[in-house]
């Protein structure tokens, strides 16, 4: 594969969970994948697993002012940016009445403001190229009400709205914007949360028609679909990868 045709992707939060699964898929498909994360140890482990097509960058996306330079540096080094996967995010489980302004701000800052800022800067690069694909990671929290995650719900609902608004402005310029809304996926974080709350786990599985948790690779395949030319005529959509959870009863 020559340098011109080889795609360049950025995956935020690419060192673990769904981000790592997505990076794994991209590398397998021959895509140079820049994985951005805060935890340098996780990034190092990811690099060791993924090999020479993975390029880790340790960076805190909540530091909004430094995002333009980050994107500029990536563009300078790699020459272009074909794909952006906005996967990085934080969650916080707390009763609505106990959530402080600071709690709410922190979740919105990482899950919305930083997504906006990096999408804006990467879009400038993509507009100059005349093509690109941006994939947002949404959540079931944007599909229906889930208790104790008010800030996360507000953030992911914003992501779904931004997907549509960005698609309308950017699609005429050759950039597609879509989101993937994972259901309950088996990761270290989710299994720990569900195992400690059997009632919630039973509820999750009870309303998932397929009756099981998804695998991170299920989400990675959906992200890759939007990143690839297979979805050339698809923009502004949200794809639930959830075993039917969002339509389950």
TrEMBL record:
Record flagged with keyword Oxidoreductase: yes
Stored CDD domains: SDR_c (cd05233)
Similarity section: Belongs to the short-chain dehydrogenases/reductases (SDR) family.
Record keyword Membrane present: no
Name listed for the protein in its UniProt record: SDR family oxidoreductase
InterPro entries noted in UniProt: NAD(P)-bd_dom_sf, Sc_DH/Rdtase_CS, SDR_fam
Membrane-crossing segments per the record: none
PANTHER family: 3-OXOACYL-[ACYL-CARRIER-PROTEIN] REDUCTASE FABG, SHORT-CHAIN DEHYDROGENASES/REDUCTASES FAMILY MEMBER
NCBIfam families the record matches: PRK07231.1
Swiss-Prot/TrEMBL keywords: Oxidoreductase
């Amino acid at each position: 594969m020559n340098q011109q045709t080889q795609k360049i992707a950025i995956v935020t939060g690419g060192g673990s969970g769904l981000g790592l699964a997505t990076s794994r898929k991209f590398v397998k498909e021959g895509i140079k994948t820049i994985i951005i994360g805060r935890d340098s140890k996780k990034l190092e482990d990811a690099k060791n697993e993924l090999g020479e097509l993975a390029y880790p960058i340790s960076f805190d996306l909540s530091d909004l002012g430094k995002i333009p330079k980050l994107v500029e540096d990536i563009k300078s080094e790699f020459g272009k940016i074909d794909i952006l996967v906005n996967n990085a995010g934080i969650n916080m489980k707390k009763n609505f009445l106990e959530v402080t302004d600071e709690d709410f701000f922190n979740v919105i800052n990482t899950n919305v403001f930083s997504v906006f800022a990096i999408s804006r800067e990467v879009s400038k690069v993509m507009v100059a190229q005349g093509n690109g694909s941006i994939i947002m990671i949404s959540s079931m929290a944007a599909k229906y009400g889930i208790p104790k995650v008010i800030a996360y719900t507000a953030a992911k609902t914003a992501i779904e709205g931004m997907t549509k608004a960005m698609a309308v402005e950017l699609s005429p310029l050759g950039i597609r914007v879509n989101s993937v809304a994972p259901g309950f996926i088996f990761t270290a974080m989710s299994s720990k949360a569900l195992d400690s709350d059997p009632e919630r786990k039973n509820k999750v599985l009870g309303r998932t028609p397929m009756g099981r948790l998804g695998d991170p690779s299920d989400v990675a395949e959906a992200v890759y679909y939007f990143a690839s030319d297979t979805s050339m005529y698809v923009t502004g959509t949200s794809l639930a990868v959830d075993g039917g959870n969002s339509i389950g009863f």
